[in-house]
Amino acid sequence: MSDPVRVQLLGEIGSAETITALRGLRDQVHNRMEALLPTLSVEQFYDQLNEVHDALIRRVIALAEADMARMGKGSPPVPYAYLLFGSGGRQEQTLSSDQDSGIVYGNPDSEDDKAKVETYFKELASTIVASLQETGYPPCDGNVISSNPQWCMSITDWEKQLDHWFDEADWEFVRYLLIVADGRLVYGDRELARKLKNAFYSDTLAKPLIVRRMLENTMRHKMLLGVFGQLLKEQYGEEAGSIDIKYGAYIPMVNAIRLMAIQAGLRETSTLERISELKNRDMLAAEDASVYAETFRIFLKLRLITIEHTEDGMFTNNGKLAGSRLTKEMKDELKLALKTGQKLQRRVYKQTMGKLG
Amino acid sequence: MVKKVLITVGALLTLFPAMAFAEAPSNAMLNTGLNSLWVMIAAVLVILMQGGFILLESGSTRMKNAGHVAGKTIFTFGLGSLIYWAIGYGFAFGGSGNLFIGLGDFFYNPGIVYGENDGLSPAIFFVFQLAFATISLSIAWGGFAERAKLSSYLIFTLIYVGLIYPIVAHWIWGGGWLAEDGAQDFAGSTVVHLSGAMAALAATILLKPRIGKFNKDGSANQILGHNQVFTALSVLLLWVGWFGFNAGSTIAVGDGLFGFVAFNTQLGAGAGAVAAMLISWIVLGKSDITAMLNGALAGLVAITASCAFVNPWAAVVIGLVAGVLVFFSQRFFEKKKIDDPIFALSVHGAAGVWGTLANGLFATPELVETVGVGRPGLFYGGGWGQLWVQFESVVVCGAFVFIVSFIVLSIVKMVTGFRVSEEQEIIGLDLSEHGAYGYPEQMKKGQQDLNA
C-alpha cells in the first residue's frame, strides 16, 4: 500500500490541470501496470488498476465542472452522483475498458429550474464523455453513457424509469436493469446513488418474476466448452484459433454471480466481493465460494492477456485470447475453470427456476 | 344403354380400326416399355438436379456473382449435351472400343423406335447417361466459383464432357478394365462425384483462393453465401433428384431392385444430415446449418456407389460416416488453404471415396449376385479382394481426372487466362462477364452506399 511511486502517481492525477496531462499520466500508468503484471496477484493488480481508473475519472469530472464554471455555466445547481456501470461498476476494468456511465441528480426545486438543471447536466456529461475519450476511454457501444439522456436524469425520474423497466420487462429493459445492478458511485453524492439502488432493490422484491427474465437474458452467453470438454475456439478471421475469454468465460460468470447477488439483495458490485458476501450470508458454502472465487480469478487473469490494440488513441480490446499464448497447463486450468463455470450456471438456473416454482 | 355402348364401340372402331385387331403386347415389349418409361422419368429427375446445383452454387456464393453462377449452369448443360452427343457418348459406350476407351456411336443416332427385345430404349439410355455426364460437370464448377473466366467454362466443358468423364465412365460402366476387375460403383460415387470433385480440385488449386478467403497469417475467413434458403432448397431438390440418379441406375423395373435402391438412398441421406448436425454441434458448440446440408449431400454421394449392394443398416452406417467425414474434410481443406466455395471437394470428393470403398466392406453376397458385379465385401466373408478393387478404382480414376484436368486447365491458364482480374472479381462476375447484375436493385444500392 505504501508504494511511493503509486502514491505519487495518484497525487499527480489528483492535481493534474489539463486533459493532456491526464492522458500522459494514463500512459505512464499503462507502462507501470504492464511492468507490475508478473509481480502482483490478480486481485492486487485489478485493485491498483481500478484505483487509478477511478482517480483518472474523478479528476476528469472535477476538471469538467471547473470548465463549465469557466464558461459561465455555473456550478452544479443540485447535487449529483456520477455512476460507473459495466466493468467500471464492478471494479473489474482492464487496461482497455470503455465508458459505461450514468448521472443521477437531485430533484430540481421547480419546473423552471428543471429545464436549466437538465441543460446543465447534459452539457456537463458531454464534456466529461469527450474528455474521457481524450484520456483513452472509448464510449460504450450500447450507448449506456451519461451523455445519453436516458442515463442522465433526476432521482425521481430515475425511479420512474426503473418502475417502467420493471413493469414492461421486455428484453432491452431487462438488460438495462442488469446494467443498473452493477452501478457504482465514482464521484459525487453518495446519498443519491444509495437512493437509486434502494429503488432498484425494492422493485426487485416487489416483482420476483423479473428474476426469471433476468435469467433468460443472463444465460445467453455460454461457457466455451464443448461436449467433449474441448475449448471452443474462433473458427474464422484474423483471430481464428483464439478463445473469446470475455464472452465465453468472464461475462457468463459475472452474469451468474450477479443474478445470485440480485436475488440476495447484495449491494456489492464486484464479482469477488459478491461471492464473499454470499458466503457471509450462508448462501454459498465456504468451499463453493472459494472454488468460484478461484475460478473467477483465472478468468480475470486470462482477460489481462487478451488481444489489445489502440484505435484513434483509445485503448480497446476484443476480449479474445490468442490460442498461441496458452500453454498446456493454462489450457488445462482454463478447461477446469470453464467446467466449474458451467456447473455454476446450471446451479443458478436451477436455483432461480426452483425458487419461482 | 346397350345401344349407347354399341354406338360408342362402333364409333371407336371407325376412328381406330387397328383396335379391332390389336393383340396383347408380348412380355418383352412390356418389359422394354416399362423400363424405358422408368428410366425416362429417372433421367428427368437427374436433369432436375441441375436446378439443385444452380441453387446450391448461387446460394453458397455472393450476391454479386449470383446471375453468372446460376446462368452458366444452363449454358454448360446445353453445351455439354451437344458435346456428349457428338463425342462423349461414343468414348464411353461406343461398341468397338477396347478396355481403355469406347469407340463408335459418335454423333449418336439411336433410331426412332426401340425394338421389342431392346430391354430399354437406346435414346432414353442416352438421355440418362447424358444427364449423368452433365451432373458431373456441374460438380466440377464448384472449384471454379466466383473467379474463373467465362471462357474457361466453355473450354473445360468441351474437354470434360467430351473426353475425361467418358473415359472414366467407360472404365467402370462401359466394359472397361475396371469393370473387368469387378469394380462396384452402382450409380457413380466415383464415376460422377469423385471425378467432378477432382476436376474441381485441379481448378481451385490453379485459380488460387478467392480474394479475402485467407489472411496473411494463414487463418481463414468465412465468405458466407448470400442465401441459405436457396442452399437448403437446393439440397432438397438434389435429394429428390437422387432417386432418379440411384434408383434409375437399375435401368430396369423387372425385379423391383429400384425400390430397394431408393429405400437405401433415403436412409443414407438422412443419416448424413443427422451425423453432420451432431458433429458440428459437438465440435463447434453450435450446430452449423451449412455443415448439416453438406452432410445430407455427403450421405447421398456416399450411398450412390453402394445403394444396390448393401443392407439397410449398412446404408445408415455409410451415411453417418459420410456426415462426419464431410465436416472434418471441410476443415482439412481449409487448413491446407484450398478454397472450396461450394464444398465440392468434401461433399463429392471425400464422400465419393468413402462411398466407393464402403462397397468393399459392406457388399452382401446376395445383392452382389442380384446386381452381378464384383464380389462381397470384407464384412461378408468376401475377404480383401473387393476392397482392393474399390481402392484401385478410386485411386486410378481420381488421379486420372485430376492429372488430365490439371494439364488442360494449365494450358487454359497459359493461353487465354483462367482467372478474372482482381478488379473484375471485386465488382463481381455478373457485371464483369455479363454486364448486368443478378440482383440489380440490391447491388445498385450497395454501389451507391460505397460511393456515398
Automatic annotation (TrEMBL), chain A:
Membrane-crossing segments per the record: none
SUPFAM superfamilies: Nucleotidyltransferase
InterPro entries: DUF294_put_nucleoTrafse_sb-bd, GlnD_Uridyltrans_N, NT_sf
Alphabetized CDD domains for the sequence: NT_GlnE_GlnD_like
UniProt GO molecular function: [protein-PII] uridylyltransferase activity
Domain DUF294: 210-350
Protein name as catalogued: CBS domain-containing protein
Species whose genome carries this gene: Paenibacillus abyssi
UniProtKB/TrEMBL annotation, chain B:
Domain Ammonium transporter AmtB-like: 37-439
Transmembrane segments: 38-56, 77-103, 123-141, 153-174, 186-207, 228-245, 257-282, 289-306, 312-330, 342-362, 387-412
Keyword hit for Transmembrane: yes
A GO CC term attached to the entry: plasma membrane
Location in the cell: Cell membrane; Membrane
Membrane topology (UniProt): Multi-pass membrane protein
PANTHER family recorded: AMMONIUM TRANSPORTER
Family as reported in the entry's similarity comment: Belongs to the ammonia transporter channel (TC 1.A.11.2) family.
Protein name: Ammonium transporter
Source organism per UniProt: Paenibacillus abyssi
